[in-house]
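[stage:ingest] chain + small molecule (NAP)
[stage:ingest] validated
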Amino acid sequence: MSFNPFSLDGRRVLVTGASSGIGRQVAISCAGMGAQVVFCGRDAARLEATAAALPGAGHVPLAADLQDPDGIAHVVANAGELHGVVHAAGIARLVPFRMINQKHMDEVFGINVHAPLLLTRALLARKSIQAGGSIVFIGSVGSHIGPVATSVYSASKAALLGAMRSLAQEVVKQKIRSNLIAPGYIRTPMLEQLGAAGAMLDQLIDYAPLGLGEPEDVANAAVFYLSDASRWMTRTFFIIDGGMTVQMSI
Ligand SMILES: NC(=O)c1ccc[n+]([C@@H]2O[C@H](COP(=O)([O-])OP(=O)(O)OC[C@H]3O[C@@H](n4cnc5c(N)ncnc54)[C@H](OP(=O)(O)O)[C@@H]3O)[C@@H](O)[C@H]2O)c1
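[stage:predict] done
[stage:export] tokens:
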């Protein structure tokens, strides 16, 4: 068989947010590329649905609330020796700036920023991520363009970008890489909820020459960042947005 630099054969990858949308597809795509997947979410029934969709064997579902220190401890205790981590768990809320408050900021930063950073810290402290490993954060083009009524969400994704870059400098000593994917609008339950909450989705999708993205478009980039194909890449991010931001001069 010919060498495939994108293969995840023999690797073990932790994926958060795997009970829905992008994280679910990342888990499926990683398993399809040969990885054993440890996959998390809060909703046990939707985690089971992800389990049923995973090709291969030996995958491990972990139900956990990542805003709860016990949830993080549960994931870290059961993750095993990892070669990669994809932080896809997150929430988006449409809140005009005049209505933001402490509760909203705590909610969004709690899962979008604090959870991935605290989970990563705990995994590193336990030496769960092997040399040659790769950490992938899921940000958003929101951090670059700041859509209306997303001050806190966009700020949370910008925070993740800065943290990813600093982390990359520290974990390079352990030969671990850290990168981020910034998707545009992707067809997931999160986007449906934003549409139901009043986002003008048709208009937003029209901004992207290639239209709406699919979870596979993000998952393929995650496989790339996890695999040897990107072994010389760290502190970087991909914008995957169907061409939306190019004309916006970011
Ligand atoms: N869809 C887009 O257009 C888009 C664009 C840019 C960036 N993103 C980012 O991509 C990531 C995934 O988004 P998505 O569209 O796939 O959203 P989604 O379908 O709503 O999925 C979100 C996932 O996060 C998990 N999650 C939320 N709160 C959690 C908590 N406290 N503890 C553990 N898990 C939690 C959910 O699991 P449970 O509900 O089971 O807990 C679910 O698996 C997010 O970080 C989002 O900001 C999405």
